[in-house]
Amino acid sequence: MASILVCDDQRSICEMLDISLRKEGHRVETVNAGDAAKKKLSSANYEVLITDIKMPQTDGIEVLRFARQSSPETSVILITAVEDYEAAVQAVKGGAFDYIHKGPGLLDELKISVGRALETMMLKSQNMAFKRDAATRNSLDNMIGKSMPMEKLKTTIRTVAPTSSTILIYGESGTGKELVARAIHTCSSRSGEPFVSINCGAFPETLLESELFGYVKGAFTGASQNKRGLFEVASGGAIFLDEISEMSVSMQVKLLRVLQERLVRPVGGSQEVAIDVRVIAATNKDLGAMVAANTFREDLYYRVSVIPIQVPALRERRDDIELLASHFLKKYSNAAQKSILRIREESMTLLRSYDWPGNVRQLENTIERAVAMETGTELSIDLDPNRPRVHPQGASSNGGSPKVTADGLDFEKFVADIERSLIEQALQQSGGVQTRAAELLKVSYRSFRHLLKKYDI
Q1: Is 229 helix (H, G, I), strand (E, B) or coil?
Q2: Topology of domain 315-379, CATH
Q3: Cα dihedral angle (284, 287, 290, 294), rounded to 10 degrees?
Q4: Considering the domain 411-454, what is its CATH architecture?
Q5: The pTM is what?
Q6: Rounded to the nearest 10 degrees, what angle do helices 85-94 and 60-70 cross at?
Q7: Of 67, 154, 172, 401, which has the fewest CB atoms closer than 10 Å, so is most exposed?
Q8: Which alpha helices (H) appear in 187-286, and where do they start and end?
């Protein structure tokens, strides 16, 4: 089923195409002038545009050019009652998908052409999704670990993957929640369709809305053409909403409606688009406590947590540390073209005994850093957190209060040095996990990212 716009100055042609295409299951709108078609293209997204070439005032070629600029993902099929070689050349050069002569076989040719257009769009969408996810796409077999908690998690994934239920993945930062989401998708009947991931905490509210739902040309400054949202891009597949707890309350309302109605409306648009997407969400927060604190909607909580899955922290699956460390050693030594054969036994003992507050991501960062510094064939690892600290100007090295000397004190630089030092310490303690570092400093993730940008960290 596709959303199709038909434009022809002959009402009988519009009515005939409307009836024929609706019988095929498509959603059809018709207009009788080129300017009306341009107006429609500016306010809604269409998979296919069928337009006559010879029309008064605004002809089909002009509508084609407008469509290529405002809605480049729309496939344009031109139809004409006149055999015109020059018009056909213009159509091809202008980016038309097909050029069909009005005749006895028009309806049959259009059905075939629309089918090919939709198939081409689907293949392009899948190809883009596969390219985007090729480096990180994971199946259940690629989930490293043989410990009891990991075997239990794999069993849960096998059980819930065939369903179409919405899933909420819980777990500390760095435990591999997206890896679990990808495994669920790969084991499902939707595995051949796109898997689209977005971090809800990485976008301001207005940008998150346009990313998820799309927008039409002119919806806001800079919206120079129509754009499909990620819910549409993931059609037939799955969308992964990471850090859903970071979503604003007003955005939660909009997401709830999408999950209830299975319809999305692009920002600035007037038409709703039906979606067929499996939603998998993830959080490192206690959503139940957020509901009690009125910072997360209760109705949305029950909508997304149909099937909750807990991902164990690395300290809860210590039996997997050696397997993971060996995997990362191979990965980064190959990338660095180094012949590091193994991890020293004393270093492996250290890895097994460490608590890993940053979980698997911290372990990976630790191995990557050690591989970069290693010059021999056996990997040595240093987990000593007592690294040199940068003391702010005016602060004593023993941690005493700053002194305003006779020469004065650069107050702004002093405060900036303190902020930078605390941010670096938090990042070090969190193993580079930004969300965990933000928690340590008791600031929001967005504020923390702003500070990182401010100090170019």
Answers
A1: coil
A2: Helicase, Ruva Protein; domain 3 (1.10.8)
A3: 140
A4: Orthogonal Bundle (1.10)
A5: 0.62
A6: 10
A7: 401
A8: 205-213, 230-233, 249-261
